Amino acid sequence: MSDAPQSDAQNMVDALVRTRRTGLAATAALGGLALVVGLAAKALRNAPEAKDAATAPAPSSAVEPAGATPFDHVTVGEDEARTMLRAMAAATLADGLVDAGERKRLDNALAAAGIGDDGRRWLETELADPADVDDIAERVTTPEQAARIYTAARLAIDPDTLQERTFLKDLADALDLPGDAVARLETELAA
């Protein structure tokens, strides 16, 4: 399967998160991708794995220029953004279908991000054959990446079905995301 064009992955994640019309995502002034990064960082706050990772070197997919903040768009590389997109697509299909509302949101996000035919074909391929949680998790190398991937998947859906809630639980387990981090994220999203 071909990858999404390099310039499209970050834009698609950003646009998909921005199309949420409820709660925190609707009021985010920083942008969708920055919201994912910020919520993930908050969710990991005080988690034992996050404290250990704070002293570890930055992963190669993260690019942080001098003065960067956790909310800067550049902290998520293209490979990680593609993994986020794969998790978002899989979450969207967790209940077995893309309903009319979800389809409209996807189409609006692609249009808002100015995604071309290559990016649209890539996303349609992901929707036709979504990744499983183990495939998503094997691409993750740090607890921070795990939190960002999970946060993107969680923001992609309103987990109102058993299948969606099960998908999120399975994804958190596959990513070794601490339960307290998941709970903190849910608290932030409910605010």
Low-confidence stretches: 49-74
Supply the helix-strand structural class.
Answer: mainly alpha
CATH fold node name: TerB-like
Listing every helix as H and every strand as E from the N terminus to the C terminus, the arrangement reads: HHHHHHHHHHH
Number of strands: 0
Which CATH class applies here?
Answer: Mainly Alpha
Coarse morphology:
globular
**What is the total domain count?**
1
Number of helices: 11
Instruction: Give the termini separation.
Output: 39 Å
| Average pLDDT number | 78
Helix content: 55-70%
- Beta-sheet strand percentage? under 5%
The biggest beta sheet reads:
none
Protein name: DUF533 domain-containing protein
Keywords: Membrane, Transmembrane, Transmembrane helix
InterPro entries: TAT_signal, TerB-like, YebE
Region (Disordered): 51-72
State the gist of this model.
The chain is mainly alpha-helical.
Q: How would you portray this structure in words?
A:
Keywords: Membrane, Transmembrane, Transmembrane helix. By secondary structure, this protein is mostly helical. The chain is 63% helix and 0% strand. The protein has helices at 6-18, 23-27, 32-44, 48-53, 78-92, 100-112, 117-128, 133-137, 143-156, 162-174, 179-190. α1 (6-18) crosses α5, α3 crosses α9 and α5 packs across α9 (143-156).
